[in-house]
Task: inverse folding
């Protein structure tokens, strides 16, 4: 909201309908002993936020994500994910607190290519995953006229469950993957710098930049598997994938706000670690009501 004459207007929340489109690319080189991969995704979401009176706001949203992942050994996976979530916000003046929960389910079609010696085949599978994530955000606005500084911290916990499945085809090397689950906790302190300027025709522009560090409590995920045609009694083996447990988290963007409090936000978000790089660009339109 423009909030002329209000020193806390930059952090102030309102009542609106919103829609957002996001594209991202994630690259993981696999480290010294792992298999690298890259994933591209497009994400579309929409929702509403309601003024409950005083400093309280309630929001809800739904989203659809389409993903395309390919590993360095030419295996690939195409998937769809559905997200739903809600958030409660408390915003008395320069203080901002928010608690949110998001859940969803994903469906993937996979191809795993196997080639060694004169043997060459493709094993296929369909996999389902589900997830629940809770997040708490705290921020405080320090305003200096047209400029501001906003220290903030995000604490999140995500539970991910992967259903078991058995590949088809594969000429004797098809895998049976057991069900698995993981819980990941992350903490991300950050500092945001920004400003606001009047624009021709009315309204304002608010450019901003954010930098922080994200810590995760785990860096590896293990799944048990066995060959589908293996005799009974053969113990399964484990497959381990790795991610960075510390990454730099940065963002930059600009809000264009009309006198009627319609907001267009253009934003870049990036994460940079030893093995991983993620780049995301988004556009979000919010219309006050």
Result:
């Amino acid at each position: 909201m423009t909030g002329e004459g209000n020193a806390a207007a930059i952090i102030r929340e309102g009542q609106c309908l919103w829609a957002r489109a996001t594209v991202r690319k994630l690259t993981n080189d696999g480290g010294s002993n792992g298999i690298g991969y890259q994933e591209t995704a497009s994400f579309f979401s929409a929702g509403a936020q309601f003024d409950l009176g005083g400093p309280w706001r309630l929001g809800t949203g739904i989203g659809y994500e389409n993903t395309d992942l390919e590993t360095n050994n030419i295996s690939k996976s195409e998937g769809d994910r559905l997200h739903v979530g809600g958030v409660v916000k408390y915003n008395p003046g320069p203080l901002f607190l928010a608690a949110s929960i998001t859940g969803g389910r994903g469906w993937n079609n996979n191809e795993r290519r196997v080639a060694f010696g004169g043997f060459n085949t493709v094993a296929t599978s369909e996999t389902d995953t589900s997830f629940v994530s809770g997040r708490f955000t705290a921020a405080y606005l320090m305003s200096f006229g047209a400029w501001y500084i906003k220290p903030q911290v995000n604490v999140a916990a995500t539970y991910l469950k992967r259903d078991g499945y058995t590949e088809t085809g594969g000429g004797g090397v098809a895998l049976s993957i057991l069900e698995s689950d993981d819980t990941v906790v992350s903490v991300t302190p950050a500092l945001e710098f920004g400003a606001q300027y009047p624009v021709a025709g009315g309204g304002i522009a608010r450019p901003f930049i954010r930098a922080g560090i994200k810590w995760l409590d785990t860096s590896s995920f293990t799944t048990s598997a066995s060959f589908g045609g293996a005799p009974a009694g053969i113990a399964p083996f484990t497959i381990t994938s790795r991610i960075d447990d510390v990454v730099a988290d940065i963002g930059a963007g600009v809000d264009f706000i009309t006198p009627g409090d319609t907001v267009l936000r253009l934003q870049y978000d990036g994460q940079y670690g030893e093995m991983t790089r993620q780049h995301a660009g988004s556009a979000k339109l919010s219309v006050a009501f």
